[in-house]
Amino acid sequence: MNNANNARVYKMSFAGVYPHYIQKAEKKGRTKEEVDTVICWLTGYDLKTLQHQIDSKTNIETFFAEAPQLNPNVSKITGVICGYRVEEIEDPLMQKVRYLDKLIDELAKGKTMDKILRK
Question: Residue 119 falls within a domain, yes or no?
Answer without folding.
Answer: no
